[in-house]
């Protein structure tokens, strides 16, 4: 057993149907694909889900591996004022093993806890980058009545050499083999944030260029080409996705993963992708 399934899931607002009964067509299309991927994850029966989010701890020059006992939090949909709460048990042992493995390889990584060393107060808040993908997955598990697996949360840094993030992905895959642990990896990621002149980041034609490039890399199974992407394109297009997908790139190459599905939409000022990857046997 090892890591045989990975995905890119968006965390945009308006994606959760329960909180947005009147979704626009593009958001509804994305939500449908996320639900499909969530069902595929359930069918894979992972023992642990590892998720990388850009919106949790922002640690300067270091990757964070969360070692709390719980992830807990709520999410309020601003357009409808509807809300949901969720908590998820963390796989602390696996998180600690990943931290030690990464540290021994010389990666800039820290293990982070919050509140108390253990127990119900050892809990870090669920950010929207974690909450939204896990909400869909939890719904799929509840529907299936299967036992919900534990999670490991990773918070990548934007201040480090991109090769470190690719290397972390490789280590995530290798650890799954060493521990004989069925694992799923999720890159929580929204794409360029400069598609709309009225959005908070304004309009830049680089946004479409970036999103088109990412879609092409996904469908052509060339995520490792991210290492050669132009820094200026990142600065102008303003994605939050690159760093999590770099981790996925390390997994994909090491595990010989291929893209199985890719849905892209841009219902607002940022683009969103829901994509799945499986090991090529």
Explain this structure to me?
With 281 residues, this protein is of the alpha/beta class. The protein has a single domain, classed as Protocatechuate 4,5-dioxygenase, Chain B (3-Layer(aba) Sandwich), CATH 3.40.830.10. Helix content is 36%, strand content 23%. It is built from 7 helices and 11 strands. Helix 4 packs across helix 7 (242-255). The relative contact order is 0.22. This is Extradiol dioxygenase.
> What kind of sheet is the major sheet?
8 strands, mixed
CATH class: Alpha Beta
Count the domains: 1
Structural class: alpha/beta
Looking at the overall shape, the CATH architecture is 3-Layer(aba) Sandwich
Strand order of the largest sheet: 6-3-8-2-9-1-11-10
Number of strands: 11
Unreliable stretches, pLDDT < 50, 5 or more residues?
Answer: none
SSE string, helices as H and strands as E: EHEEEEHEEHEHEHHHEE
CATH superfamily: LigB-like
- Distance N to C terminus: 13 Å
Q: Shape, please? A: globular
Give structural attributes:
alpha/beta, three-stranded mixed sheet, Protocatechuate 4,5-dioxygenase, Chain B, single chain, 11 strands, 281 residues, globular, ferrous iron binding, 7 helices, Xdiol_dOase_suB
């Amino acid at each position: 057993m090892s890591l045989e399934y990975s995905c890119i899931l968006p965390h945009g607002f308006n994606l959760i149907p329960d909180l947005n009964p009147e979704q626009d067509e593009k958001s509804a299309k994305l939500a449908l694909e996320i639900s499909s991927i969530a069902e595929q994850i359930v069918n894979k029966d992972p023992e642990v889900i590892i998720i990388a989010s850009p919106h949790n701890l922002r640690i300067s020059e270091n990757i964070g591996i969360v070692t709390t006992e719980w992830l807990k939090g709520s999410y309020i949909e601003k357009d409808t004022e509807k809300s949901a709460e969720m908590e998820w048990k963390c796989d602390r042992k696996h998180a600690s093993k990943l931290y030690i493995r990464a540290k021994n390889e010389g990666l800039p990584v820290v293990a982070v806890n919050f509140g108390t060393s253990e127990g119900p107060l050892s809990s870090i808040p669920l950010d929207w980058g974690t909450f939204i993908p896990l909400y869909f997955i939890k719904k799929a598990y509840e529907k299936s009545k299967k036992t919900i697996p534990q999670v490991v949360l990773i918070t990548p840094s934007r201040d480090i050499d991109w090769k470190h993030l690719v290397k972390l992905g490789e280590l995530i895959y290798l650890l799954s083999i060493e521990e004989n642990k069925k694992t799923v990896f999720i890159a929580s990621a929204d794409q360029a944030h400069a598609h709309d002149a009225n959005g908070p980041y304004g309009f830049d034609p680089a946004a479409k260029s970036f999103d088109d490039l990412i879609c092409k890399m996904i469908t052509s199974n060339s995520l490792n080409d991210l290492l050669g992407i132009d820094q200026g394109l990142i600065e102008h297009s303003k994605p939050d996705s690159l760093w999590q997908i770099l981790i996925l790139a390390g997994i994909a190459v090491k595990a010989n993963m291929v893209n199985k599905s890719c849905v892209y939409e841009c219902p607002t000022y940022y683009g969103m992708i829901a994509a799945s990857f499986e090991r090529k046997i």
